[in-house]
Structures
1.
Amino acid sequence: MEFELITSVEGSRARAGVLSTDHGEIETPIFMPVGTAGSVKGIHTRDLKEDIKAQIILGNTYHLYLRPGIDVIEKAGGLHKFNRWDRPILTDSGGYQVFSLGDIRKLSEEGARFQSHIDGSYHMFTPESVMDIQRSIGADIIMAFDECTPGDADYQYAKKSLELTQRWMERCFTQFNKTQPKYDYKQSLFPIVQGNTYADLRKAAVAHVKNFDADGFAIGGLSVGEPEEEMYEMTEVATADLPENKPRYLMGVGTPVNILESIDRGVDMFDCVMPTRNGRNGMLFTSEGTINIRNKKWENDHSPIDKNGTSFVDQYSKAYLRHLIISNEMLGAQIASQHNLAFYLWLVKMARQKIIEGNFLSWKKEMILKLKERL
RNA sequence: GGGAAGAUACCGAAGCGGUCAAACGGGGCAGACUGUAAAUCUGUUGGCUCAGCCUUCGUAGGUUCGAAUCCUGCUCUUCCCA
């Protein structure tokens, strides 16, 4: 995998680049729609590609391992063939489930013992097994197995957790290096910077991940309950010391404003469930501000969802979408998700263009004012 | 024509003498959602000069210290018999 840095901005860490994989190029900064169980909820790959203009999507190791199961994905010939997405894929390792499945998981030096959220059955994930599973799923970018700590973790816990994550990371790379791809294209393993909200831990984490000969680096353990300002600070601490010539992926972030602020701080890649989940729940992100489409004020607003929107669904009216969402019609969730994803992809594309043109900072300032509007 | 059951807040439906402005569900209104245990969750839903007061349980009276709850008339609804 190659990463070419095109340009950067004076007075900012923002950069534009091109990441090349065997499934095609990714123009950074980029937003990656989340497709946990092998599907970006409610969206066909045709719309992802042609309408939303997604360049890379996510999958999740834990979810795909439980269902449909790794043998099914192997027999399909890998996730790309299974879900008919021929562009790059990134799989998360299950590290986030270590955090979100809190009560039904137990950590040890060896790994994490999970109880399936589907049927309660017990499963063991180790750094080694997670590498093997991700070889079988066959994503272009795969993630190290880490512990994602909650935003309010105390220093002692954060330190212990980071050390465990670091030992797991060594084992991930060892396993990764002694195995081969199962399909006819390369895979890259990204290590993850943890350290919670403690700058010294983050710095140590960055120093540690730089020891690996990785194609890119992730910043994890943020947007998990800590104040937004701390998230930005930790992002900066990380990007300040990460190699310039490799992509940086801020995991799980975030709101449109979070993304612009983080691009400014030197992040190249993002993913978040927000455009799809919040879309399903009636929240729309637009260039004019945020809309709760369920609110009565849209009942008779027959203007387009987003008159400047790039997706064909943006021409549906607010009143119609409100009706669909309120009536719990599947199409409502689909339209809202598609709109939000198209908006996210438009936003990062604009950011990239402004970086290249050299006026990213002034555009960002203006854009954030609009994004904070509540319509 | 005779008999039976019933009428409760936006809708459905509990309550059957005081702890009832009235359970619960739906609907309505609003909020949350950040590497997806989420097409989910939370709050609210008579009015006001809001730790208190006012008006509500078909309608008009009555019994009682006290009535959505008991009695009587009326109106309407459903069912059964002719």
2.
Amino acid sequence: MKELPKSYESAKYEESIYQLWEKSGFFRPEGLPDAAGQGEPYAIMMPPPNVTGVLHLGHALENSLMDTMARYQRMRGKHVLLLPGTDHAAVATQAKVEKLLQAEGVKHPREQLGREKLLERIRAYSEESKAIILQQIKKMGTSCDWSRLAYTFDEQRNQAVNEIFSRMYQDGLIYRGARVVNWSVKGQSTCSDDELVYVERPAKLYYFKYSHDFPITIASTRPETKLGDTAVAVNPTDERYRHLIGKIFTVDVGAAEPLSLKIIGSSAVDPAFGTGALGVTPAHSQVDFDVYEQQKAANDPIGLVQVIGQDGNMTAAAGGYAGLTVVAAREKFVAWLTDQGLLEKTEDISQNVGTHERFGDVAEALPLTQWFVAVNKEIPGRGKTLKELMRQAVESGHNGDPAQKVRITPERFEKIYYHWIEHLRDWCISRQIWWGHRIPVWYRGEESYVGAEAPLGEGWAQDHDTLDTWFSSGLWTFSTLGWPAKTADLKNFHPTSWMQMGHEILFFWMARMILMSTYALDQIPFKDVYIHGILRDELGKKFSKSSGNGVDPIEVIKQYGCDALRWSVLSGISPGNDSRFYDEKIEGARNLVNKLWNICRFMLLSISNPDSKLRKGILPATNEASGLADAWIVHRLERVRRDVTENLERFNFSYAGERLRDFTWNELADWYLEIAKIEGGKDELLNYIFNTLLKLWHPFMPFVTEAIWQEVYGQENLLMVEQWPAMDPLIDEFGEAHYFEHLEPTMAEADFASFQEIVTAIRSARADNKVEPAKKIAVYVKEKTPLCKNNAAILKALARISDLTVAQDTQKPEGAIALTAGGVEIFIDLAGAIDPEKEKARLEKELAEVAAYIPALAAKLQNQDFVARAPEKVIAGEKAKLAAAEEKQAKLKQQLIALSA
RNA sequence: GGGCAAUUAGCUCAGUUGGUUAGAGCGUUACAUUGACAUUGUAAAGGUCACAGGUUCGAAUCCUGUAUUGCCCACCA
């Protein structure tokens, strides 16, 4: 067997290994070794990254999560489909390309280039971006099925979009209507409520009257919109104003027409806030528009006057203010109020304003005719609204079936989801940008037609608007599987098994996938959603281009390797919580990868013949040379196998990994391999450990484990499709290894722990007394009562490891120091190297510690309540502790006396 | 204003359903260095588990309140 290099060089392996995996066909479920076998389908749809740029660290986290899960499930024998794709990200991409064009000097891209040319530019940009992204996904080691690569804006997905639009339209769930919507002047498009980003900023609150004879003072931070007021709302219980309800006042504030203001009652108005009266501007406030609708329904209508236009300037209805920008109109109006003596006071307040997620400007509320999804309308034949479908899928299961329940990890996000649903309004899905799925509706005069293609006949023109990008990504779990065709993939893989996402897209995406899937397929989109937090820098700040703290995951891979990147983003995370990413973490990850490499390298050097039979994961038969350390490591390996498996099942990626790290480094490398060096002759067992270890590590560190595996077994035998280690027949349900017949399995753990304590105590004493590491010293273990059944094994190990000599049943030699550890007395002859004063101080310190501990334990055991109520096991444990402490105390006292004698 | 988290060693975090003298990694200190690995090893120091009550035989863990920090939602017109 050729010798491996001293340290793992990721760059040498990663590319060729990925190619090998890809070539193997195992990324495809039907390419798996047992594709026709019993394995159940397991599907993960990769959230498609936006084609607005390249992947960042957050994507590295997501890919690591998904690929770890996919590899684990694949090794468990599932028919895993990890499906990759990208998202055209309508607004985001168009906004990005327009910004780039503007930087190139094209000030008004839409007017200057026109629809077709601009779309061409965006397409070119997005294709370039897409190509880079796909390369990056490969570099991250992602084991996804490239043959099923999807794009939210390709032909297949466009069919799905058109199909669902038509169905929802036929069901009356999509409608065209005039409502107040969010409008970005800069982007010249609508956006949904969820796309608003609220920013806090200082504002002035103006208190004024519309005219001198108007009886109520109102307050507003946007006085210019008051030119469009049509009512004043007061609380009907408010004694100050209730007598005015129903009255109509006509005031002239300089708009094209005098304002006709009706005083209306609304319990939503807080009498204690401000003046207790609210100027109602139906055209420029969502809330006020609701009031307008309510009044209409109650047969007490109020007017609607639009004073701000789509260009962000005042409309003709604003009379003397027409054509002014909003800000200029405000200044002019306030100046007029001041002149007239109508302005009573101003107040500086801080205010949250909704800005457009992509274009960044403050969104205006405008009344516009747009396309909407009706979330509160009953679906024909289903007896439920879309909102109810969305709620039920998470709450009790789709159609009340618990097996069709979307389970969210961590659970607390369920509450947030319900809360969001409560407040959900009809979803505005039409956008005036050009990059996106065109709305499949055709017009000719008064006629309209819904369908992908124009109907027969002349003169039909398609709706100019495009669809909200989330309308298409909402279909992702099934549009990727060929829907609306009834494909085998749909049957096999939907509902998908597991989905992960950041909490910031819970509403955008998770909610919409649930809506679309329950509506279109009568199925939930996925059984489990894992919500991860975001990665922050070492100071806890978000990574962003503007803060200049960005980390390029591909650079990290180049420098430290993909496995190190994966480990550094995965370790330390917990569901739903943010985590920090910093250099030391990557270095630590790189060190771990290298440690694993060297552990395997050492095992291979020690094994005379790596045995491919052991790949099946069966423990080798007992052999004569087996000792305590062997029993212990087998036991510990089984425990870690179980812990890793259980925790991956529960999506505790970080804990599973930590557990594996702890075993590998602190148990296997630091203890067992050191002993194995001395004892020797462990071919079979080392083979077994080597095999199992690589399999357990593979989902976390696919490259380094596969690299080692191939060095041993050749390129025809890929680790990625080895079977995940199962419980060995020789290990019982309690995790005890019945492997070494001459050893009690339950004792292995305790005995080895004693052994470790003894060794550590000796090392510590040597260090305290500055004994040169290379110097051999005599150690005597005094055995009063048999330490345990495996005492011989311990003593044997003690005698063989490091530089110790052991004698049984002995008196403390002259000048030796005495220790109590692991339940026995130990004498170390330092050949006069000790300082008696120092030794006395050490003993006294230890004595003080144990003396302080004993009374607490004793008191506990004398407490009748404790003895009566605590479980047997706990009481027995406390008694044992007390006994051990008392024995130690006695020994320490003796040792002190002996020292002063 | 409503809601949700977090608060444990200098730093980053575990602590799996209440039961060790509360753990890890990094950092720190001392020592080591040709034998798998300095991307290393050995040993050590370091914590009133934010605070105050309560429940319990027993609380980092459960309950109530307070403080600080972060996030989400609503919004003040």
